[in-house]
Give the backbone structure.
Amino acid sequence: MEFFTISLLNGVSYGLLLFMLSSGLTLIFSMMGVLNFAHASFYMLGAYLAYTVTMFVGFWPSLILAPLAVGVLGALFEKYALRRVHHFGHVPELLITFGLSYIILELVQLIWGRSSVDYRVPEELSGPLFTLYGTQFPLYRGFMMGVALLMLLAIGLLLTKTRIGLVIQAALTHPETVEALGHNVPRVFMLVFGGGAALAGLAGVIGGNAFVTEPGMAATVGSIIFVVVVVGGMGSLAGAFLASLLIGVVQTFAVAIDVSLMSVLNQMGAAINSATPGYALWKLKVSQVAPILPYLLLVLMLIFRPRGLMGSREG
Amino acid sequence: MSSKTHYEFKPLNVGRWIIWGLFSLLMVVAPLMFTSSLSHTMLSQMGIAIIVCLSYNMLLGQGGMLSFGHAVYSGMGSFLAIHTLNNVSNGEWALPVSLIPIVGGLAAAAFAVVFGWVTTKKAATPFAMITLGVGELVWAMSLMFPEFFGGEGGITGDRVTGSKPFGITYGPQIQLYYLIAAYTFVCTVLMFAFTRTPLGRMLNAVRDNPERVEFVGYNTQMVRYIAFIVAGFFAGVSGGLAALNFEIVTSEVVSAHRSGAYLLFTFLGGATFFFGPILGGILMVLAFVLLSELTKAWLLYLGLVFLFMVMYAPGGVSSLIMMNLRVASFGFLRRIWASYLALAGTSFVILVGAGAMIEMVYHLQLNAALGNELRFMGATLNAKGLNSWFGAAFVLLTGIALFELTRRQFLKDWGEVQVDIEKEIKRREAL
């Protein structure tokens, strides 16, 4: 029970972090049709900027400043690079973000070095939040969940209750009509791209110190959030939310389970040893399989439900 | 363009025979001109890279399928090839070494049959994401099964084994080079032939207008699937050759980095022309072997070049060549060569300025223990000195300003030349 609750909480907090990333990706994708390959790079950039800003002015200002800076960078990239290739089609758009991910990775290594930086959880957030069955649940994890939920609420309200949100929603489906009504759709695109990048940056600020801030961090989550977007259904925010939680929880549980098929079957009376055919497969522990679970989920999903959890159409 | 885009002579297409003849001659002569062992190694790698980039372009250029997991197929080809090689060495199987790349190809095609079925269910952006997922799946698996993938150390083999027809042992690099060259030539011919088959044409149609293809009665998914398998086969052949060349295969060969490199260089070479990926493969080896020796920041330069290429020349190097060939064939090249020289000169100035700054930052980051001084293009820079920074910034800004001026002039000239070419075409049509 203890293991279950703690793992569930950890899984949910990781899932919410994934959602902060995948929500921006989904918004950008559903609006502009651009799969932002550099999205995880913005996450990494957010973490590194927060590290630097924290050194000068502390953690709380960096919670605002770093995402803002990342958002501005994202908007500038959209305006000066992405928009230029828009008329070439979707593949060049994807390629240019792919190139950007290379550049950001190299620049980060250029500025902050190739090893991890010492970006820590601030003092006032480093204690335990509560103790459950004798295990402490860190306060910072709770803080992460809180920020993610707040952000979710803020986006929801922004998209449904405000004027700009309505314009964004309209531009999603009918960009020409919205343009004809006198709205500056390219600027809306730029705002959405910048906003998505800022969300990724915010995820980096709060995720960078919970995990490790290193040049490899973009690659670690990068492919996972793509899985989230496909599993949730291309372009569906609710689907991305469900899929993030699902993948977060599944991965957290899998990492902690230290049994293999062999040990389970042997307990039930089977005799599997190194002589059994397929021993390499039987002896694999669940924790060893954990890294591939999201991708297995992706493949299974594509076979059995190609439009994803909440997707509305088959792409 | 409605008229023919290339010269053709019936019944024999002389132009094509000449080009392929020159291509094969080049591959035969190249190792005799560059005789150092480094250049032999590089030439071998270029052959391997050419095959894999061409096979990648079968997806990207001809099928419009942007794959982020092509290394899975070349990598699995490598692994199966090295296991086969080891079985041959053990005396379990009797197979000449020269056929091992085909084993790699068949193995990769088998993997493409399995994975491709899932992957090619979608097209465009979802396709890209799924290939990425499958790539990550295989990469994660490579760490799970050290028995097959060799774990950290990889799997080693020895290519000097089995029967030795005519005394060819493949021990010396030059012998292996000619094996690779033969494979490269045959694979290139086959892949070019593929573009001329009805399937290859259908693949172009699926790229350009899948909806219409469906209406005509073709199954777009099946067309993509078959092309995917064929591309997987050629990638596997190249993987098998790589296994023979390096005699070691580590799990790095299935990594996302490798897939990304294939994408990057195929695009840089040019996806819109058949010969583009050949240039891409050559560039890939040059970058990986020479550029990475020259500077630590080579990935940054590469990313920047890629970014500008996507923005300003989405057809890659080959499209630039073809555009200028078009200008030259109308005899207008002499009107823009001065602009070209100016552009080259000013971009060189930018490169010097930006390069000096980038190298200084890298020096501070990586070699701080060696002191503040570094050598850059024959000059000694002080990475912490104001003079060096100021000088570099000055050179960079001057370069950018001059470049912008020449770029405007060039665009004007280029536009005029294009207009004149159109006029010339009209005039010839009227004749």
